[in-house]
Structure prediction request, 616 residues.
Amino acid sequence: MLIVQKYGGTSVGSAERIKAVAQRIAKTASDRSVVVVVSAMGKTTDGLVKLANEISPNPNRREMDMLLSTGEQVTIALMSIALQELGVPAISLTGAQVGIVTEAEHSRARILQIKTQRIEEHLQQGEVVVVAGFQGISQTRHQEITTLGRGGSDTSAVALAAALQAEKCEIYTDVPGILTTDPRIVPEAQLMSEITCDEMLELASLGAKVLHPRAVEIARNYGMPLVVLSSWSDAPGTRVVSAIPKRRALQDLELTKPVDAIEYDTDQAGISMLRVPDRPGVAAQLFSGIAVQNIDVDLIIQSIHESNTNDIAFTVGKDTLKQATAVADAILPALGKNSDPSLGEPEVKTEERPIAKVSLVGAGMIGRPRVAAKMFETLAAAGINIVMISTSEVKVSCVVDAEDCEKAVNSLSQGFDVDVADISSSGDFLRNATQTRIATTESSEEVPPPVRAVALDMKQARLAVRQIPDRPGMAAKISGLLAEQNISLDMIIQSQRCHSVDGVLTRDIAFTVSQPEGETAYQILVNAAVEFGWGEVVLESAIAKVSVVGSGMIAHPGVAAKMFEALAANQINILMIATSEIKISCVVEEEDGVKALQAIHKAFGLSGNEVVKVPA
Ligand code: ADP
Ligand code: ASP
Ligand code: MG
Prediction:
């Protein structure tokens, strides 16, 4: 029996902590083989980054990997010494010594393969093997030291567990497990005994840094049992559960196909509210009205505002279109007239043509901006215009004309090499999701609430490009240009309103990127705007993204309304909205971020009676 345990920075932040953790490992090692993965001590990695930045604002990525990988090397040696001191035979190994083979991409390498021979030899001799997390070695002639990206030790641990076919992988950290939100912001956050990989993937990529999203991806792909727990207590923590996956080879561990499946839904109808006043409470009013009627809303998007007005667009099932339109019509009078009459008045617009939603699904999309770019390119090449776009980390959905649906599905399945068996209509998806939910909750005998957890991401920037011609290929162009620099678009939103510029219909496209990449993305787009004759490019860095996640929100009307109401009650204005089946994200002003998270967490009744104390 083999178990892989990973200890994060705080857990090994001092000699005392290392000794305490060694005691824990010794206990486990008394009746099992153990491989231990450790991070750098405390905030060592941050310190090293700061040091380099004192010398250069833009240090060479190869040298950064050389530098940052030293942090973990200190911990493995100390941990091994601590174990030996307790009489436990132990040996430390760097990523290179193990043979954690990665791509040659510095600072964000993906794991290709893990050689298990050396570790197995040591295990057979009864030694605990202590491996440096976060680092690997490239396969190239020069065998360069690489790192996996910040927070990547989680990924090292789960990958090792998969390669060694361990019984399970335990991630020890400074909180009792995965909580309903970050306890540093909401101390009453509650521990979850269980969460699905799908939910955790969304959460991790929406700002909950308790797990590296790629670690969750590997656990899901290989069906590796994963547990997150505190290294300060013996409490059982949180299990991250997944359906039993298809068998996968251990070759190209992290480079499995980026797209697993295609989903489509032809039962959709679109409604937009155009030119509604840009003030807190409008989205809340609209979606509360819709929730009261028990209408299930699928996608919701709200794009960038223009002179104090917003557009909100959403889709519902065809059979509820009339009802939903009536709700929207009914709130129009209460919105009042726009202060600037030249903008026109608020209006409800029902998409006259039937529409369909087509989605690409796959955890392998994480950190691979080429996937979304290629989706848009594929649709453009087939001459299909995209009406709406909404993204999550593991899914990109495009709304297109219903008559283009079949063509879209066919060209995407060819372009991404997706089997016919993995193409399904959304009805099937909903059924499967509900079944997984029931299957995973039966064991713990609790019905999950529609919202399981809330996340905050303060490290995003918003970009908007105005007046882009409304024709196929524009989203492809933008995402393609950014993908060349490896910049991922997080939320992508097309405005519903068209402007006529010199007789050409144009739309605005807005999206978020990670904050450090904002400036580069801005420059790329400013150049493109000149070249292609687009309008103004706007960069806004002072934003925050708050998100709710839960697979229980499928077929559970009213979740969006509740979230928007919580924001409105706190006078927080929503700048952008994007949804997927299991999450809703709102962009708000940066200064509202923490308040927004707290309000939403409270509104969904996620707080417990006990306060979580995070060790300093
Ligand atoms: P480690 O050094 O062990 O890898 P991290 O700092 O990377 O630890 O991740 C643990 C931290 O994640 C916690 O201290 C907590 O502040 C933060 N966090 C954010 N969201 C959540 C959440 N939903 N549940 C638990 N922790 C969270
Ligand atoms: N030490 C690395 C970091 O701080 C990796 C990790 O801790 O997971 O990002
Ligand atoms: Mg971490």
